[in-house]
Design goal:
By secondary structure, the chain is mainly α. Helices cover about 45% and strands about 10% of the residues. It is globular.
Length: about 300
């Protein structure tokens, strides 16, 4: 284990709020219907199809960005933010890297319950040298992503701790009480909307492809990979295996996407009789398991 870190956001919340969070964990997520994406997965694949005219793909993207329902769709907001974060570094991308648009879309996705958008906001702020804001977002991500006891010892926990560790080295620890005050205020203001969005994401989980691999194994003799997130768009054969894999985004560096390709390629869906292709946007979280939560900072 590498080091202990301060990630005890739940323990730093006011007692009333901490109690309500614990009660929500015990009773399960609030009921919510799964959200419907504005743009189907097949169209997202078309966006990266270089055999199609670039102008047509950009027009398709503009229609999505101008859709009235986008502001309430965390899934497509997250996808747009990821698209503009990676920009031209993703093969076939119809856009250039645009940190302003990435921040706009990911920030709104986070407010509507996308925990991965919270993590990416922390990564964007860290890359921009806005370390106080990066820590705010890292603590917000840790609060929501690690609510479930099932997250202990997982890549989610490892990534959250490693993310905070990278930011912690950039700020004076004397600002942490003020950071936690900001985070508590954010949670109090946005918790209901965030939980509703998270409930919708949980309702979609049965559509998610599976993998027989429970962890990533690097090449023999290689150093342990850093933690990160990689997003892929997968196209599946009728037998449920991956036919095509597109890297859409990766943080904190593009090479995280290369590292996790074999893991993403192991994803499967149930076989089907017809030959119609099936699609899935799959985020993959990589944790190096050298970091653990530090409960010693509890009140």
């Amino acid at each position: 284990m590498k080091r202990a870190l301060w990630l005890g956001i739940g323990l730093c919340l006011p007692w009333g709020l901490a109690t309500s969070v614990a009660a929500a964990d015990n009773t399960g997520w609030i009921a919510a219907p799964p959200s419907q994406d504005i743009m189907p997965d097949a169209d997202w694949v078309t966006l990266f199809d270089q055999s199609k005219p670039l102008a047509d793909r950009q027009h398709m993207l503009a229609n999505l960005e101008q859709s009235p329902g986008l502001k309430d769709d965390p899934e497509d907001l997250y996808r747009l933010g990821s698209l503009y974060h990676m920009g031209e570094h993703a093969p076939g991308s119809p856009v250039q890297e645009d940190p302003v648009k990435a921040t706009l879309y990911l920030g709104n996705a986070a407010l509507h319950g996308s925990t991965l958008a919270m993590a990416k906001m922390a990564e964007l702020k860290l890359a921009a040298g806005q370390y106080r804001e990066a820590m705010n977002w890292a603590q917000i991500y840790s609060h929501y992503a690690l609510m479930s006891p099932a997250s202990q010892g997982t890549a989610t926990e490892s990534y959250a701790a490693e993310l905070v560790d990278r930011i912690k080295d950039k700020i004076d620890q004397s600002v942490m009480p003020a950071v936690m005050a900001d985070v508590n205020s954010f949670v109090a203001q946005h918790d209901a909307d965030i939980r509703l969005g998270m409930a919708r994401e949980q309702a979609r989980e049965h559509h998610t492809p599976k993998t027989p691999k429970h962890y990533y194994v690097g090449p023999l003799g290689s150093r342990a990979s850093d933690s990160g997130i990689a997003d892929y768009m997968l196209v599946f054969n009728a037998d449920g295996t991956v036919a095509t894999m597109l890297l859409i985004d990766a943080v904190p560096r593009p090479n995280i996407g290369t590292t996790m390709r074999s893991y993403a390629a192991s994803m499967t869906l149930k076989p089907q009789d017809n030959q119609r292709p099936r699609y899935a946007w799959v985020p993959v979280l990589l944790g190096n398991h050298e970091y653990r939560m530090d409960s010693a900072h509890g009140g």
